[in-house]
Amino acid sequence: MRSMVIRLAELNIAVSYRHDFTEKLCREYVISDFDGNVDFSVSTSDAELEAEARAAEKVHGQEFSDGYVESICIYRAICRKLPAYNALLLHAAVISDGKHAYAFSAPSGTGKSTHIIQWRRAFGEEIFVINGDKPIVRFMDGQWHAFGTPWCGKENLQTNTHAPLTAVCFIKRSPENTIRRIDVNEAAERIMHQIIIPKDPLMALTTLDLLDRMIRHVPVWELECNISEDAARVARAAMSDGNISPNK
Asked: Where are the domains of the chain?
């Protein structure tokens, strides 16, 4: 068993691992020559790795490398401890213009990746991806921030940085481009499916409290869109302004 310290969402996390895959995955987040205090530590057991490998094969119909399986288990272990630090995993793609972060969530195949490409086409190099699939969001200094992580989806899109989370947006396919702000009840129901609820009762309650805080601080939207650059313009105009009242 080897160990390293990585920095995620401004937390120092000690990681025990076995495989080179995990070390390479986290290389941009490793703290070299670390000699300070860690916020928490994570590790995985043989039983956890075996169970994850079986589950992944059952869901996807194929075997995965031991290193890949280990990396998934490690991130899950990290995510279970995040609520104690006012942080959550949010299953979404997050893009930024350097000042604001916008999180987009959608079922696989809906066009989440295609939509964020349209932002680059519409607004140029000022737009970059913080994380393409599994960012961390954390409440700090009275504001939610979105952070890059090494776990970022099959496109491997991530940046080791963070930005204030300005909006969360759920994408639906449509011939036309329209956007509406949704109320807190609908927002809670939708975001509930995009976070991890820990099995530990205290951490589960803390997670639900954080969810409530998020939807009351961060506007949540539904974007019905096609795959044009105009979809990005419609989304940015509404979410940057943030003043459209939620539908009741």
From this structure: 2-85, 87-241
